[in-house]
């Protein structure tokens, strides 16, 4: 139980920081668009990465240096593009929520964007595979530690995706969407800059 609680605490603290993935989940939750599919895609992806780290695949980044470089530049390019889309949306004046929600993006597009924001982000490998994987080695029950970290991902993403509904009244205003788009765009570009500058 101690290992599971430690895994949960570490997993939750790592995922809590605002990043590209979290901003996208928040946005989908506010729009009420494909929330279940998006939170499941995030949580299952995290679970797979954590399982890989706990199973000992964290050495991949060290064994294949080119892997980290490709992921870093590919992730940065995607984040620059995605951030630019948010700035463009803010420039056009925001997209106030309608009473019945807004599902302008198809299910496939939402899930593919979510998976790209997850799997093209080198930080996710450092956090879930390398860091959680290496810390799990300190516990006799690595499986419990890993399951605790996976549970944290499911709790966090479902809370973020469905908890965003409480903010829906605020986002009936186009101005609020402009502010969110700018914040998301700055977040994406900030993460891209950190990746490029190393």
Give your account of this protein's structure:
It is built from 9 helices and no strands. With 198 residues, the chain is mainly alpha-helical. The protein is globular and about 55 Å long. It starts with a helix and ends with a helix.
Give the terminus-to-terminus CA distance. 37 Å
Largest sheet: none
Q: Give the C-alpha Rg.
A: 17 Å
Structural class estimated from helices and strands: mainly alpha
Order of helices and strands: HHHHHHHHH
The percent range for helix content is: over 70%
Number of helices: 9
Number of strands: 0
Q: Report the sheet-strand fraction.
A: under 5%
Label the overall shape. Answer: globular
């Amino acid at each position: 139980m101690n290992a599971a609680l430690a895994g949960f605490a570490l997993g939750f603290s790592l995922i809590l920081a605002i990043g590209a993935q979290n901003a996208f989940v928040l946005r989908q939750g506010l729009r009420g668009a494909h929330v279940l599919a998006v939170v499941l895609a995030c949580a299952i992806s995290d679970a797979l990465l954590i399982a890989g780290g706990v199973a000992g695949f964290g050495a991949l980044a060290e064994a294949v240096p080119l892997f980290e470089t490709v992921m870093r530049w590919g992730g940065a390019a995607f984040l620059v593009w995605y951030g630019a889309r948010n700035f463009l949306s803010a420039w056009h004046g925001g997209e106030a929520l309608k009473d019945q929600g807004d599902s302008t993006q198809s299910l496939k597009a939402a899930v593919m964007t979510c998976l790209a924001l997850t799997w093209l982000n080198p930080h996710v490998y450092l956090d879930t595979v390398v860091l959680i994987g290496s810390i799990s080695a300190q516990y006799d029950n690595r499986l419990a530690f890993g399951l605790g970290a996976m549970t944290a991902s499911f709790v966090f993403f479902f809370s973020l995706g469905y908890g965003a509904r409480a903010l829906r009244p605020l986002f009936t205003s186009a101005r609020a969407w402009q502010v969110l788009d700018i914040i998301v765009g700055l977040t994406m570009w900030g993460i891209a800059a950190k990746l490029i500058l190393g």
